[in-house]
Amino acid sequence: MYSAIVARLSPFVRDGRWVLHNPLRTLPTLPVAPGLVALLATLLGSTAYDSFSASEFWQSRTVDGAQRTLTLLAFCVVVALLFQLASRATGGVSGRERAALPGALAHSLVPIVVGYVFAHYLTYLVEKGQVVLFALLEPTGWPADPSVSYVLSTHTSTLAGLKVAFVVAGHVLAVVAAHDRALVLLPKAHRLSGQLAMLVLMVAYTFTGLFLLFSV
């Protein structure tokens, strides 16, 4: 399911051959299935908790497994609840239409999830990934002297810049995706005011994501 969701952001499509295309064209085609908002909120909330759990604030405290689990659940619930409230905060729609808005706008969370995953786990991918690659190649005897290159850990400014770029890019794409769908879903008289709550939420997600990334 995760792969199918993330694939909506692929810059490539296969139409007889692989071609470049605008991922924002396929992102809105994400099926609105029951539990979609909860799933995306869990993906985003769990990654945010992973950053929070590595912070000095959390590491300096003695917590047991139950407290860790409850905190993780709290992160996921807060992400989901705020999204539910922001996506419904518009006028000019019926009760049934309002209830359907969170699912209809859920695809806008995908770029945030992907951007934050890259920002948070980039070091693991680049550096720990080398360890995995060398382990897989060990039976071949190549390379003769495997040595992990800590290219990101030793260039903290570059790493920080990449983290910010991934987070900001994800949120910009999310705002554009939500805006495009809102223009279709909301009545003309509420297309501006109906997006304000979602815009504020996206800014809050951005600020919180950056704060957690750099609080470690």
Descriptive report:
With 216 residues, the chain is mainly α. Helix content is 66%, strand content 3%. It has helices at residues 2-6, 23-26, 36-53, 56-59, 65-88, 95-105, 109-137, 156-185, 196-213, and strands spanning 12-14, 18-20. A two-stranded antiparallel sheet has the order 1-2. Strand 1 (12-14) and strand 2 (18-20) form a beta hairpin. Helix 5 (65-88) packs across helix 6 and helix 7 (109-137) crosses helix 8 (156-185). The longest helix is centred in the last third of the chain and has 30 residues, at 156-185. It is globular and about 65 Å long. The two termini are 30 Å apart. The model has no long low-confidence stretch (mean pLDDT 91).
Helix content: 55-70%
Helix-strand pattern: HEEHHHHHHHH
Number of strands: 2
Give the low-confidence spans.
Answer: none
Overall domain count: 1
Strand order of the largest sheet: 1-2
Tell me which oligomeric state these chains represent. Answer: single chain
Overall 3D shape: globular
Mean pLDDT: 91
Q: What is the beta-strand fraction?
A: under 5%
How many H/I helical runs? Answer: 9
The termini sit apart by 30 Å
Structural class: mainly alpha
Q: How can the largest sheet be summarized?
A: 2 strands, antiparallel
What is the radius of gyration?
20 Å
